[in-house]
Amino acid sequence: MLEINLKQLESFVATVEHSGFTAAAAALYLTQSTVSAHVSALEQTLGVPLLVRGARRPVTLTPEGQNVYAQAREILNRCERLQALGPAEQPPLRLGASTAPGQGLLPELLTGFLQRCPDSRYVLLRGDSARIHSLMLDSRVHLGFVGAAMDPRRFVYHPIANDRLVLIAPNREPYPTLRRQGVSGLTLLTEQPLIRREPASGTRQSLEDYLRRSGIPADRLHPVAEIDTPEDVKAAVQRGLGVAVISALAVQEELAAGKLLSFDLDRSGVFRRIYLAWPADCPLTAAERRFADYVLSHAEGE
């Protein structure tokens, strides 16, 4: 039995209809390498070349490719008609978010999208960046908002926002005086007891990248605790256990309420990217594409 799947047919048809792998990948929300691999797998299974590839010209169909394209297009059309026979209510968008985008970006994005598409529904799962990647691989969520691009070979990443990392401290002496004196967060980071996130946290990975770039060895820090949720980190800082580095998006409410103080790590600020991500080998549904388009257009307008 031939091992042909719909992903291969969809990639092949999109490559033909968009005159190339790059445009097909953009249309399917996949990487170019994934689309090319699906088409190559289809050619290998059928035992014939389907496309004439050229470095400086659009891909064209071989005689065998013309026959396969007509049949593949009909198969996809039938699948679309079958899908239309299903329930009118669309399945919910299955989303995953790490803490910073979950608190600082998603509420506004979901509100805006639901105003535009009022019939949409969503399921949201939370965790650190590593857990969101794992949930996407297990198909428990289909789109993820993460603070680190952990595996570019297996996921598509689109940057949607810049997030500033700040050092937080309790709003009591000596920290208000140190803040007025212009003491940097980096100085406090190397002098004060430090509460760290768990190793799988995107925030911690970004901090460690910054320390490596700054030439600061790990033995300059004084860790006293490792805590796996930002809410518990903030509570521990408020109680005076130590200072911590956290996303500015995740601490807005506590700063506004005067519960905590923030210090920039250095004068230019330390930033990381927030990404919208999905598995590279899983084409998005039409509803997921609409939501991704909305998020990306919102990011471009930032």
From TrEMBL:
The residues covered by the HTH lysR-type domain are: 4-62
Q: Which InterPro entries match?
A: LysR_HTH_N, LysR_subst-bd, WH-like_DNA-bd_sf, WH_DNA-bd_sf
Which Pfam families does the entry mention?
HTH_1 (PF00126), LysR_substrate (PF03466)
Q: Which UniProt keywords apply?
A: DNA-binding, Transcription, Transcription regulation
Q: PANTHER family from the xrefs?
A: HTH-TYPE TRANSCRIPTIONAL REGULATOR, HTH-TYPE TRANSCRIPTIONAL REGULATOR GLTR
User: Its family?
Assistant: Belongs to the LysR transcriptional regulatory family.
The molecule here is called: LysR family transcriptional regulator
Task: Give the organism the record lists.
Answer: Faecousia intestinalis
